[in-house]
User: Fold Gfo/Idh/MocA family oxidoreductase from Croceibacterium salegens.
Amino acid sequence: MSESKISRRQFVAAAGAIPIAASASRALGQEAKGTPLAGDFALPDPPGNRMRWAIVGLGNFTVGEVIPGIRDSQHSRMTAFVSGSPDKQKDLGARYGVSRFYNYENFDRIADDPEIDCVYIVLPVGLHAEYTIRALKAGKHVLCEKPMASTSAECEAMIAAAKAANRQLGVAYRIHFEPTNVRAKQLIDGGEIGDLRFISCDHGFNADLNWPPHVWRLEKALAGGGSMYDIGIYGLNTSLMMIGDDTPADVTATYSYPRDDVRFREVEGGIDFRLRTRKGLTISGSSSYCWSPYISSQRYMGSKASIFMKPATTYDLNTIVLEGNGPQRTVGAGDPWGQFAAQIDAFSHAARANTPHRTPGEMGLRDIRIIEAMYRSADNGGAIVAL
Assistant:
């Protein structure tokens, strides 16, 4: 008899056990019983106890990444959509069980909606400050997409609004929740590469005027800035994530794109920078809207070994290669698709307890101040700008 087809009952009988009967089973103490869970389980909240989210902006990123992330979360659920497209709201609402719809004109009415605890701002950068501040004044906690805003002054106003409303403000730096980058930080913090000596980061793609999601990125009023705001900020923020309690000291930068390219009449198309920390670590980076193919690369050089990640900050393809201190090896990490759910749930926890999020508004302000300093340096021939 094939082992794969032997039932548990047949196996016990074939082994010469007592014939299986209800009375014999009870005599052997083999009744089905409930047992306590072993280990530390984080059980999902019942739907009625989850933090309730309104999503502002229903573009490609929202539909492809944010909504699935909330759907897969354990402590959060969607209750409202804010959009200028009623048809899109109706379609997505039917798919995901959302029935509360607002537009950009009646947005402030969310203040009277008890089914909204948190608001996720997924709009072009030039609109972040306005809608974040309006949501905070409405008494809601706000998670805002990166970069935080167009200027450091807008970031400061957003932080002030959060404090005035006694609400939490976070910036959606998903890399802090992405398993491969979390693993890389664990390796660095655990001394796997020795003392961290140098970081390089390169991020870019070729902006396409024929693709709508790229077009608004080339308009300063909506994008806030150029490639450094949009794609280069991944390299900057991720690098700073890895350096622990070290902090930036100064930066120098130069523009690196063809000045006659019609795409870059309003925003910079590329920048190279060199940031020095107070402990003497150097972060060398580049950002571009002129590169093909897309690139996302991070390298962490240590006194014993190095970590190379290419790609480094994508949604689902990131890798870690550990070099030196023995044979080269690839280090695995968890399921990358959990990063959006993890980010949403982390903010839900912060909002429920009214305690700071892992990537708070102050982090977003720091990064915009650094990028502004890069632009000042590049405008002045690469002069060193103190931070």
Q: What stands out?
A: The longest helix spans residues 361-379. The radius of gyration is 25 Å. The first strand starts at residue 51 and ends at 56.
